[in-house]
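Title: [Solved] HTH lysR-type domain-containing protein 3D structure

Original question kept below for reference.
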Amino acid sequence: MFDLNLLRVLAAVIEQGSITAAAEKLQMSQPAISQSINRLRKVIKDDLFVKEGRGITPNRVALQLYSDTSEHVHQADAAVRGLIAFDPYTTTATFRIALTDIGQQVFLPRLSQVMRSTAPQAQLEVLGPNTESVADQLESGELDLAILSTDLHNDIRSAVLHLGDYLCITRRGLFANPGPSLEDLRSHPRVAVTTFTGHTLMEKYLTPIPPGSIVVNTFAAIPNLVASTDLVGFVPEDLVNTWQARENLDIWKIDEVETQTEVRAYFAKSPGSSASAWFVHLVIETLRDPSLNNT
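Solution (posted by the thread starter after getting help):
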């Protein structure tokens, strides 16, 4: 009978990059990992890995086997972890979530309210996301979940939480009705948000950033900057709806391009613990728009 644990070892060695790291991940000894690889080699009748310096590199057969089986391995691991008793009401675990400043304003109040009632002793740590490293942080367990409006293009899982539009905001009276065209906006100085935050939808229509613009790394300063200057800005509609003072701003919908974006919850293929799996499920169920529940 085939030992399915051999596939767990194969997946760990490929994902972690070495026998040493795989042993640490699976909480096994290095000789036990090597023995498992040798057993799998005999079953498959292939070397699977080739020596490269002091390490090993998977060959084509190993990569194909990994591609065909790794998702099932991770699902089985997740199912087993789900059977391990976890009581959210008594847990003192720390859950880590990556949220932009917009996410903190739009999603955090709702999430914190639910956390207070379902896991009152747990700690929630909120970090600012960097799209260049967030996928690795999710896979390593450094983060439990990240909420972003950008496609990470990584082999991690995600769920759509919300669909929203980006709007153009300007100082009151800067543009006459029916508002600025896309061509007007391309050459107009603006407040741009750095790309690592993930808010890049409008920038792909507008780049390069024209002279006289200001680049910021959060949205917090944009309303006051725009209201007091001739700069224009582009912000998600959900954020605009949280602003109390809007009397000095004009808000425009740009119909010439697609401005709708998906806000997604990203999480690892295989949560590192039953606590993390619970937290991911809670966030998705709490924050996902009801209209998306059946999609």
